[in-house]
């Protein structure tokens, strides 16, 4: 019942001539005012309970998160940054380091000659060749002239240009070696200050350096 309805109902009741005692003139305003105060009190109490419940939930959630984070064995996430150069493949075209000689021999256009215990598969005109070991398969790939690595350097690049994608290269005489992984890397040979030959080589291969 609204306060307006309550006010009207009380006025009708107190004006009833059947009442033994007449009601004071201020009876209705006092009763209506008391009803309003009780409603405000209930509303304030309800609001306080809601706030307390929300705050309590936040505190419990924070406490639970802190406990879980501090418990031994809680899995954690670590972020590892991978340089693009680490994704470069140890191969060129259809050929890759470790490819067996019988796979290489299926490709035509090579001149084959012995080099120590290994065999050199030399391509015509492009200076592209493969050094193949009977034990390790392909141990060296000499890239064709004008070829670049996936990082955009190679034939014609200067030492400074090589260092941008491969800052850990090691220069020995006119050769720069770049370890790309524990078992392979690049070898760049310089002529007149620029790269003339680029090889992909297996680390510790029995064939030694490519031709």
Describe the model.
It is a single chain. The protein is rod-shaped and about 130 Å long. The longest helix has 44 residues, at 27-70. The chain contains four helices and ten strands. The protein has helices spanning 3-14, 27-70, 101-104, 159-163, and strands spanning 91-92, 95-96, 110-115, 118-123, 129-133, 137-142, 170-172, 175-179, 184-191, 194-202. Strands 3-4-5-6-10-9-8-7 form an eight-stranded antiparallel beta sheet, with no helix packed on it. A two-stranded antiparallel ribbon has the order 1-2. Strand 7 and strand 8 form a beta hairpin. It is α+β, with helices and mostly antiparallel strands and 211 residues long.
How would you concisely characterize the structure shown here?
By secondary structure, the protein is an alpha+beta fold. The chain has helices at residues 3-14, 27-70, 101-104, 159-163; strands spanning 91-92, 95-96, 110-115, 118-123, 129-133, 137-142, 170-172, 175-179, 184-191, 194-202.
Structural class by SSE content: alpha+beta
Biggest sheet: strand arrangement: 3-4-5-6-10-9-8-7
Q: Alpha-carbon distance between the termini? A: 102 Å
Shape: rod-shaped
Could you tell me the strand content as a percent range? 15-25%
Mean pLDDT: 77
What is the string of helix and strand elements?
A: HHEEHEEEEHEEEE
Count of separate DSSP helical elements: 4
Low-confidence stretches: 49-55
